[in-house]
Design a protein that fits this description.
Layout lengths: L1 E4 L5 E5 L2 E5 L14 E5 L10 H10 L5 E3 L1 H7 L5 E2 L5 E4 L2 E9 L11 E7 L3 E3 L14 E5 L7 H11 L3 E5 L6 H16 L4 E3 L6 E3 L1
Parallel strand pairs: 3-4, 4-5, 5-6, 10-11, 11-12, 12-13
Antiparallel strand pairs: 1-2, 1-14, 2-3, 7-8, 8-9, 9-10
C-alpha cells in the first residue's frame, strides 16, 4: 500500500493498480492521474474536504468509481449518486476494504451545527478519522493520519488521540492553516506522542508518499 499526502486533508491511497481518493477539498490542487480510481471517500461535508469540482474531475476520469459518504454529505451536495455509509458499515471497492466509524464532527462552537462525519479504516492498515478523534474499536493501527490544525482542534487533544491509538506509523493531515514554523512545532509534539508507544512519525509534505 502506498499513501500519498496531498494538500491539507486529501489522501491518495494506492494498492496495486487501484486508487482510493479521500477528502478532495478546497485547499487541494486539481487532481491528476485518476484513471485507476476505484472509490472516493468523503468524511464530511465541509468544503476543505469535498468540492463539486474535484468530484466532477474524478467522475470524468473514473465514471464507475463510487463515492462513499455519510448522509449529511449527500444532502449538502444534493447528490443522489453518493453511496451513504454509516458507522459500522463495511464496503469493498477494488483492492480496498473500507470500514467506517464515528458519526459526528468534533464541536467547533455551540453556535455552529454539528455535521455528520465518518472515519475510515482502509484494509485494516490505514486509519483516517476525518474531523474527529474517534478510533476504531480494538483495531491495531499500522498507519494513522492524525489531524494537525483546525478550528475544532487543540494540539494537546491530538497528542492524546495519538497516544490512545498507539500507531506503528503516523503522519499529520489537515494542516493547511499552519505557517511553516507552527507546522514544525505541531509535528514535534505529534512525533513525541507517536514515539511513546514505539511508533514512527513521518513528516509528509504535499506529494510525499509513504509505502507500507
Amino acid at each position: 500500500m502506498q499513501v500519498t499526502k496531498l494538500e491539507h486533508a486529501t489522501l491518495r491511497v494506492t494498492e496495486g493498480d487501484d486508487i482510493l481518493i479521500i477528502d478532495p477539498g478546497s485547499f487541494t490542487a486539481p487532481l491528476a492521474d485518476l484513471d485507476g480510481v476505484v472509490a472516493v471517500v468523503i468524511t464530511h461535508e465541509h468544503a476543505d474536504h469535498v468540492t463539486d469540482e474535484h468530484l466532477a474531475r474524478i467522475a470524468q476520469a473514473a465514471p464507475s468509481a463510487p463515492v462513499y459518504a455519510p448522509e449529511g454529505v449527500a444532502r449538502a451536495l444534493d447528490d443522489r449518486s453518493i453511496r451513504i455509509v454509516s458507522p459500522g458499515d463495511t464496503v469493498t471497492a477494488g483492492a480496498f476494504t473500507l470500514r467506517f466509524f464515528g458519526g459526528t464532527h468534533e464541536i467547533i462552537h455551540t453556535s455552529l451545527p454539528i455535521v455528520d462525519n465518518v472515519g475510515v479504516l482502509v484494509n485494516d492498515r490505514l486509519y483516517y478519522p476525518g474531523d474527529s478523534y474517534v478510533l476504531p474499536d480494538g483495531a491495531d493501527i499500522e498507519l494513522l493520519a492524525a489531524p494537525t490544525a483546525a478550528p475544532w482542534l487543540r494540539l494537546g487533544d491530538t497528542m492524546d488521540f495519538i497516544l490512545d491509538a498507539k500507531p506503528r506509523h503516523a503522519f499529520g493531515t489537515h494542516d493547511a492553516p499552519l505557517v511553516p514554523g507552527a507546522l514544525a512545532m505541531h509535528r514535534a509534539r505529534m512525533r513525541w506522542a507517536t514515539e511513546q508507544s514505539g511508533g514512527t512519525f513521518h513528516d509528509l509534505d504535499p506529494g510525499d508518499t509513504l509505502e507500507l
